[in-house]
Amino acid sequence: MVLAVREICAGDEKAMLALGGELARAMEAPMLVYLEGELGMGKTTLARGVARGLGHQGAVKSPTYTLVEPYELGEITLYHFDLYRLGDPEELEYMGIRDYFDGRSIALVEWPGRGRGFLPPADLLIRINRQGSGRRLSVEAHSQRGVECLGRLPLEPEIITGSGV
Fold first, then answer.
1. Fewest C-beta in 10 Å: which of 31, 55, 139, 141?
2. Mean pLDDT over all residues of the chain?
């Protein structure tokens, strides 16, 4: 059930990174975020912004072939999943998917539909669509934790530009 929604426009890649940083500052572990959008919509770019916003200094690569990239960030762990190449959702059970969702983790899951039946419900669902040369993000809260995260997003107006990034 959707409890709250925010619509946000990001004009370019820098804006997606900036939005990821804002999301990182609004998130509190534990949190599960689903990222939906067609190929090339910026899911990994948004995840990169979240990782940097949480303090990660190194490269953030897409975990397309490894399924998950962990980032130890002090008291929390960020898990970035990309399920695009998942052959069967049951593979998540074999890799111990439930162990990733503990009280000190934030998990970002690209292509969550491919893990249907084996993933817990999301706190936030972020749908990314093309809007002109930029992107329009629909950020849906599906839990009270998600509602609280949306409430901490300091985005006014709801258009993000890449300036200052």
1. 55
2. 90
